[in-house]
Amino acid sequence: MPVVPIASRGLVRPFEVTIELTRRCTLECLHCITESGPDVATELPYERVLLHFEELKRLGVVMVLLDGGDPTCHSRFADVLVEAVSRFVVSLYTPLSSLDERGLDHLAAVAPNHVFAKFPGPTALKHVARTRAPGAFERACGAVRRLVEKGQNVSVVTVGTRWTLAELDEYVRLCVELGVPKLNYVRLYPLGRARTFPGGLEPDQEQRSVFARRAAGVTEVDVVHPYFPRLHNCCRVFATVLADESVIPCTYLREHVAPFGSLREHTFAELWSSDAYRAHRNIAPADPCRRCRLWDICQGGCRAGAVIATGRLDEADPECPIVRGEIIPGALEE
């Protein structure tokens, strides 16, 4: 199967850009890859945010994901949200524990396309044990209910740790109680605090496989998860701007790929079209990926998963069952 380099397809811009507005957060989650917290001051200045929005809009970027930390902790979040929604399809990743009623009503009025409400725990007791933030669970639940009542599109999102995979039923109940139709599990990467947690937080392969089978049987809500067959190499079409204005391909590669440069010194277009960034987008794992009939769908899977597991960006995603030696009839070309 021929591998067509992404640069030759005329991709002059990413489809989606994640913008890390701030590393401040009201929570101090045990799994946090950015090691965010209430006392972390790093923030992308509002004037610089507008400058980057303007360039990304000119380039034709379609989607922007506002992330953190907690993006709602940005000193001018209300203004940032208005400017983002006026230009892009906008998603917001937030624990929803810092906005008051006025802030929530403003969010609902501006109406980003999707709010992903982060819940590190499915109950108040588990939530506080993992976030060191008493009362945050109750505030988040109240915030979600208020947004749902106002017609805002909301999903519950959690990181797939060895704890949360086992708590699928509790998370489904939480979604039903909050009136949320979708539950998103995000893949855990051993970065930041998750890398140093005693004993580790990563689920083993058996836990992931059991979870995927159980998730397929859930009928009350739509469960979205990052495990096979939902693998994808997003580095080819996504990009990330960190709060210090450095540009990397993916937030989960922050400890494994040097930034391609800083927006304080270059335009985004210059960095995206640089030789180094082009080379990264064209990284293609060899066998079994090049013989796989699913190549056009996953293109080798997650680069962060590959480099964390193997130390190499050009290896296949170890989450793939073919890579693990399992047989999928008809998947590989002879």
Summarize the structure.
With 334 residues, this protein is an alpha/beta fold. The protein has helices spanning 46-59, 77-85, 101-110, 124-131, 136-149, 168-178, 192-196, 205-216, 268-272, 275-281, 295-298, 303-310; strands at 16-20, 63-67, 89-94, 114-118, 154-160, 182-187, 222-224, 238-241, 247-248.
Characterise this structure.
By secondary structure, the protein is an alpha/beta fold. The protein contains twelve helices and nine strands. The chain has a nine-stranded mixed β-sheet, with helices on one face. β2, α2 and β3 form a beta-alpha-beta unit.
Q: In which range does the helix fraction lie?
A: 25-40%
Beta-strand share of residues? 5-15%
Count helical runs.
Answer: 12
The string of secondary-structure elements, in order, is EHEHEHEHHEHEHHEEEHHHH
- Give the beta-strand count: 9
Arithmetic mean of pLDDT? 91
Low-confidence stretches: 1-10
Instruction: Profile the largest sheet.
Output: 9 strands, mixed
Shape: globular
Q: Strand pairing plus helix content: what structural class?
A: alpha/beta
Radius of gyration: 20 Å
Q: How do the strands of the widest beta sheet line up side by side?
A: 7-6-5-4-3-2-1-8-9
State the distance separating the first and last CA atoms: 10 Å
